[in-house]
Amino acid sequence: MLPVRLPQGPGRRPVVEHYLTDPGRWHKVDLVRHRDPGTPGGWRYEAHLMILGPGHTSPPVAARREAAATLHRRGGVDVNVSNLAVVSVPVPDPGRVDGLRATRVARTGTDDARLAAERLRQRRRNRALQRSRRATNPTQYRLSPRQARRAERRAAAGLAPVQVVVPGGPRQANTAGIPVQAYRRDMLSGTYRRLRGRAAADGAARTQAGRTRARTIAATLVATHGANLVVEDCDLRSWARRWGRGIHAFTPGMLITALQHETRQVAALGHGSGLVRAGTRYTAWTQHCLCGTRVPKHLRQRRHHCPDCGLTGDRDLVAALLGAHTVLADPNVPGTARIDWPAAQTTLDTVGVEAINQGLQGALSESTGNPRPTRHPHGARPRRPQRSTSHPRPHGRGGWCRRARRTTGTSRHQATHGNRRPVPPTTPDEPRTTPPCATTPERRGAHPGLRHDPGTTPES
């Protein structure tokens, strides 16, 4: 028989009674262990009870979800590497006093400072782990070039060799690059095991803190905008290849997962379809305006300005506003997403451009928070003086560098074919625009702003 200690603390008794009152719902008990440096032996054991039924929901959470289920609103979610924007409008009457609601979640300077401290602590811990492994297994590593030169000098002078405690060279390996001895067969010191356990515990705590933060943000967003939300169907793995550190800092995938779970729970109580995904082939939220005009923007352009209707605001908030007017013929198929241009025009006429601009700007000012700390505490680093190009060299690396500078920022067609129109770059979650000759009638008909303007080239 294994004694188990039940969770203690205020508010835990209803949770324990929910899981233990009815033995007929008990399914199985799993014995799980976690690394805990503060526990004798380095491991903490827990018994997890799995039941056949719903989990526990506290009365405040149930009341909040019931109130969110009564919100007849429709919203759009624009997720980015470093921020998340949500804009919603009421479904029956978009011109109400509280019609337009906008929320923006972004990283702050406090978050960046905390992440910088965590990365520094992790780098120092990794160096300590590497030194401990090398000192415990010195025969499995070679000498560094500096240590090898010192050994050669001492041998040439007839001196006795110095014992190297921590070799700094690579791992001993065969001709194929495979280590002679597997890492799992190395001897590990007590310090190494304690550091490794502390790193695992800190990583688990950091992950749990991120999940709690994501659930809190998702609950606030659903309570404000309802459970009828639309988000772009984008692959975050392609973002991680280019902005891996930003993805790790902001965790947009964790936020979307928490938002999907919360909207599903609220949609099960009443109004709302949950969080649905919309394809970007026929929508391209960040490249269009609410009036239907296509406004191409580079990735570095974070402000939206429509020359036709005068709508101005943050790029992500305007994209989320377009997402609030996106409908899907089949919610399970993201490719059936289309922008409801008549509804968008009705919102624009009813609310007004000035009111929309003020609402988006208010959301931007409320969510900015503390500014991010600069990399240099005494100001920005002065620009490095450019090398003079008054006397170009015909050969060598300089010619290639100057050629690269001239072609930086230009598209492939502009650099190679001067008579063709350059293709504007798009964000990773949007399709790249195609030449006019490749536009199909279906894609041309999906954008009435281009169809009614005879002076605009039909582009996707």
Secondary-structure-based class equals alpha+beta
Tell me about the biggest sheet?
5 strands, mixed
Helix content: 40-55%
- Cα Rg: 29 Å
Structure description:
Helix 3 runs antiparallel to helix 5 and helix 6 (236-242) packs across helix 7. The strands form 4 sheets. Strands 5-4-3-6-7 form a 5-stranded mixed sheet. Strands 1-2 form a two-stranded antiparallel sheet. A two-stranded antiparallel sheet has the order 8-9. Mean pLDDT is 80; it is low at 368-383, 386-438 and 447-460. It is 40% helix and 13% strand. The protein is of the alpha+beta class.
Topology of helices and strands:
Blueprint: H1 13-20, E1 26-35, E2 43-51, H2 59-69, E3 73-79, E4 83-90, E5 101-106, H3 109-136, H4 145-156, H5 190-225, E6 228-232, H6 236-242, H7 244-250, H8 252-267, E7 274-278, E8 303-305, E9 312-314, H9 315-323, E10 326-328, E11 337-339, H10 341-351, H11 353-367, H12 397-407, H13 412-416, H14 441-445, H15 448-451
Parallel strand pairs: 3-6, 6-7
Antiparallel strand pairs: 1-2, 3-4, 4-5, 8-9, 10-11
